Amino acid sequence: MAKYVGALDQGTTSTRFMIFDHSGNVIAVDQKEHEQIFPKPGWVEHDALEIWQRSQEVIAGALAKAGCSAGDLAAVGITNQRETAVVWDRTTGKPVHNAIVWQDTRTDTICNELAKDGGQDRFRAKVGLPLATYFSGPKVKWILENVPGVRERAEKGDVVFGNIDSWCIWNLTGGVNGGIHMTDVTNASRTMLMDLKTLDWDPEILALMGIPRAMLPEIRSSSAVYGKCVYPLDGVAVAGDLGDQQAAIFGQTCFSPGEAKNTYGTGNFLLLNTGTSPVQSKSGLLTTLGYKIGDQEAVYCLEGSIAITGALVQWLRDNLGMISSSVEVEQLAATVEDNGGVYFVPAFSGLFAPYWRSDARGVIAGLTRYVNKGHIARAVLEATAWQTKEVVDAMDKDSGVALTSLRVDGGMVHDELLMQVQADVLGVPVIRPKVAETTSLGAAYAAGLAVGFWKELDELRANWGVDRTWEPHMEAEKRDTEYALWKKAVTRTFGWIE
To answer: What pLDDT does 408 receive?
Structure first.
């Protein structure tokens, strides 16, 4: 009898494989980074073959650490950086171009062209998304238009597209030898090509973007047995597939309308469960699929996506050399009482929610001779908290439900100063669960449900437990003053790119 469930979590900067037991405890984890490729300003790419290589390495690594074999796993779930587009040749198994990452802004011109008729919200009623460089549909259009010979092969279905989940599942299930070409509803909802109501590819949008249907994966539920793995997970059922943020809300067991979570990773992603009907945003949020279990009705979410949060700490480390490891930012920020009047708006690839401004670029405002590196570090952490507050305010407006607490997860939640700042800025308690890596846990849960390892959602709810809660201490008047300064700094980023 299989004792565990595995999750392959393919993120923006690294890939990890985690093994969980029935109580949702982590049995083993192995993780490896991959290269970030920046061919031009605003362009961000990954080598999809390197990602698949890292995926195989971490699977083997975690199995070795757990002292178990593939046969000890009841199933495996996949979760992934969502809008990163891979286009590959299904006869050779080789990508036709580097994967174009969700942060990449090269499709700005394509989005502006499409917005000439109907504006930025041209497709929003159907797909829940504004026209923005973030999503994978325009990236596919760019590849079809810029890589010679690809369009002809795509028309025949020899060259295919998928977000990273599709690439990983195709390789896991055999690749060129019969690999399954599929995606789930959550990943499909991030392409700008899927109708939110029919949960199928939209022929009108495909025609407008010039994307052949033959290259698209089949859209499936987030929890179902899709097929069997080959090496290194021989015979294990692939049974769960969720985009990373949807996996996190699933792992946080936010199964009821009104429950929300915020993931602190490369970027920040706040999702609110809105139930079985899509809620259209009037405040710059995205309407997205939350999850779909087997044949049950799909569950929808409102999402606030922030492009740069953890990536700003990495930038401080890698580009400025102000710290030598990411954890040092908390120590440096703690050397000062406050931000010294400094606000850092990290619009490195434009601004996502609630602004959707691809013409914005990063700004550090409020510099004086008084400011030292501690103040800069503090402003870096506060940037995450203020951006989150803007998204929470938008969510309150759209949903009509005021946030009473915030469940948090992801790598940055171990920064206790940041969590306190976040509670102060929001004016509500911030709650960290016992298992903070809820993205991997959510993918494992989806896979385990599909094969009967867990029988129902209440079993998963019972696994969730609080590790720590931060209560707000900041006075409302001070919060309002600082928030106004933050918003002022944000306006300074607008219109930088002509």
So the answer is: 94
